[in-house]
Specification:
heterodimer; A: mainly alpha; ABC transporter involved in vitamin B12 uptake, BtuC; two-stranded antiparallel ribbon; B: 291 residues; 11 helices; 3% strand
């Protein structure tokens, strides 16, 4: 069955792969410079980060309003190791990711017993503490408010085309991993916790442990995104860990639609492209987040992916109904004919 | 030194207390959490500025007008957004996110209307200082403290002694049962949000003359106010005030005697500490823990 499915989908997968590989060349050809490629790279990084948030919020139903802190933790660890010890990319990125994961798990240990409202408070506090710590660290080892400039000596350099394929590989691995996690026993436990914590507890699921796992996996992905980001942009400042960035991640997630692979991708692409389009109005960037968030929450709780799915379902239902009625009529006619 | 720090701590603590009072009120009466409360301070400060400084109305009148406007904004907020979401029975967290969205909208709207510069709120009680038992401070500072305490007391009376307050509490506890007893739950949550907004606008009127008026005046104070509410026990009126004042004092004393570097960090450290160690707060208010 599974093999059959894959075989059926094979043309689609191959088509998608060809499209994704051809896209950067096409974009570079049309635009004539590297800038759109950079945006595409940022989109790929944000897909990883928002996937992390999706595991926590979309699947496990736990809120985090401080996810940007994990992003910056990954980025700072990765960046600081680079500027102080001159470590290469393939060591600093895992280091940043691991630190973010550890801190995520540590935070989740006491936080997992809090109800959603208070969990959101705890994560806000965590984000703010991270921000103020990086902004004014003991001894200034984080370069404080100036942020850090990374002199990346990686094999990727400034060539965004190489970066694109490097990040694309990460995104594919992350999304495959996410899918298999969700389909696993742990993933089903996450969903049951989201749907009804008490029932999940009653079914013998260790709620606390699974919440901590969800937090850790989420921090892992977001930290990874941050660690990649700092090497791509070569700069990170404490500003990134502010609530604004966390809300940006949430806006992307909700706009696209929670608890789905496609929703995450659509949300990130739409919001990032939109943000680029309104760059001249950057002063009012937050207004756009606010209005978008409000519209999505009030009018489109499933995000655009959920909305599209609903529309598709309705069309299919309507089509089936019409088809069904037609066959009914035919039957009647046949019966009438017989009589 | 000690006396100056004490009075400063009490003043900022009073403001934190007012914010925390708003949070507790909303939580007590509708079981929800608002992140837009801080921006209601900003809104109140700008409204007060408009009435008092630009339209040159008497202070008392502008005070009442600000209160009324914020009340109306609160009602509209509840009717337009919160009620719409509650009727859809979405996850409570979507309501929190909606309030965050509203807070951004308020920040940017005030920025668009009044610009990014800090505006000066004219002194209300001239520049007179008041001396009580050897401590001299601005009259506004004392007014701030007195008004905060009075509001706390009035609110507590309102919530526990009046019929309407009881109805509000019952609507929060079990909306369905309250509805079946003939309580208009929609109206009672509307009034709750409106009251919370109005209280925050008073805090804005009080903060304005001391700190000047700017677009992010409220958002920082608002987020720190959560610490006050949690320290006192989220949902408890007295707890909100006590927690707010404790927060203000700790913040001021640490900044005064030890280090000013981490002034902003303290509130969040206290918040996270209380959430993890004693989530029910000083007044042991329940309903925070999950499984």
């Amino acid at each position: 069955m599974n093999i059959l499915n894959i075989q059926k989908k094979l043309p689609l997968i191959v088509g998608l792969a060809v499209l994704l590989c051809a896209l950067p060349f096409l974009v570079r050809f049309v635009a004539g410079n590297q800038y759109p490629l950079l945006i595409m790279c940022i989109i790929l990084i944000y897909i990883i980060a928002v996937s992390g948030l999706d595991i926590l919020f979309g699947y496990s139903g736990q809120i985090s309003l401080g996810h940007a802190a994990f992003f910056t933790l990954g980025a700072y660890t990765s960046g600081l190791l680079n500027i102080y010890f001159n470590l290469p990319l393939y060591l600093t990125i895992p280091a940043g990711t691991i630190l973010a994961t550890l801190i995520g798990a540590l935070l989740a240990y006491p936080a997992s017993k809090l109800k959603f409202h208070f969990l959101s408070l705890a994560t806000v506090a965590f984000g703010e503490i991270t921000y103020y710590f990086l902004y004014k660290s003991p001894g200034g080892f984080t370069r404080d408010f100036k942020g850090i400039n990374v002199i990346s000596i990686g094999f990727l350099g400034e060539d965004y085309l190489k970066w694109y394929f490097f990040l694309l590989a990460f995104v594919v691995i992350v999304l495959l991993g996410k899918t298999s996690l969700i389909k696993s026993r742990t993933g089903r436990a996450f969903i049951s916790i989201r749907e009804n914590t008490h029932a999940a507890d009653g079914m013998g699921i260790n709620v606390r442990k699974n919440k901590i796992i969800a937090f850790a996996v989420s921090a892992f992905l977001t930290g990874l995104a941050g660690a990649l980001y700092v090497h791509l942009i070569k700069y990170i400042s404490p500003e990134t860990s502010m609530q604004k960035q966390s809300v940006l991640f949430l806006t992307m997630l909700l706009f696209g639609g929670t608890a789905s692979i496609m929703g995450t991708i659509m949300g990130v692409v739409c919001i990032e492209v939109l943000m680029e389009a309104i760059r001249p109005l950057q002063e009012y960037q937050m207004l756009f987040y606010g209005v978008l968030l409000l519209i999505v929450i009030v009018a489109l709780p499933g995000g655009i992916y959920g909305g599209l799915k609903n529309v598709a379902q309705n069309i299919r239902k309507a089509a089936l109904k019409r088809l069904g009625r037609n066959t009914d009529n035919q039957k009647k006619v046949e019966k009438g004919g017989e009589a | 030194m000690f006396k100056i720090l004490l009075i400063n701590g009490l003043i900022i603590g009073g403001v934190y207390g007012l914010i925390a009072l708003g949070y507790s009120l909303i939580y007590r009466a509708s079981g929800l959490m608002s992140f837009a409360q801080g921006d209601m301070i900003t809104l109140g400060a700008y409204l007060g500025l408009t009435f008092y400084s630009i339209l040159r109305l008497p202070f008392f009148l502008s005070f009442i007008l600000t209160f009324a406007c914020a009340f109306i904004v609160g009602v509209l907020l509840e009717k337009g957004v919160i009620r719409a979401l509650l009727n859809k029975s979405v996850l409570p967290i979507y309501i929190v996110l909606a309030t965050i969205a509203i807070s951004y909208i308020i920040q940017n709207a005030t920025q668009a209307l009044f610009g990014t510069t800090t505006l000066r709120f004219p002194q209300v009680f001239s520049t007179a200082t008041l001396t009580i038992s050897g401590i001299t401070a601005q009259t506004e500072a004392f007014a701030c403290l007195v008004i905060s305490l009075a509001l706390m007391f009035l609110l507590h009376l309102f919530m526990t002694k009046t019929k309407f307050g009881t109805a509000m509490r019952s609507a929060a506890m079990d909306p369905l049962a309250a509805e079946s007893c003939g309580i208009n739950t929609s109206m009672s949550t509307g009034i709750t949000w409106a009251l919370a907004a109005a209280i925050a606008s008073i805090a804005g009127m009080l903060l304005g003359p001391m700190y000047g008026v700017y677009t992010t005046l409220g958002s920082v104070v608002g987020r720190k106010g959560f610490a006050g509410a949690v320290v006192g026990g989220y949902g408890n009126m007295y707890g909100a005030m006590v927690g707010g004042i404790i927060l203000g004092l700790v913040e001021t004393f640490v900044a005064g005697y030890w280090t000013g570097t981490y002034k902003n960090l303290i509130a969040y450290a206290i918040l996270i500490l209380f959430l993890f160690v004693k989530p029910t707060g000083i007044f042991n208010e329940k309903a925070i823990q999950d499984v």
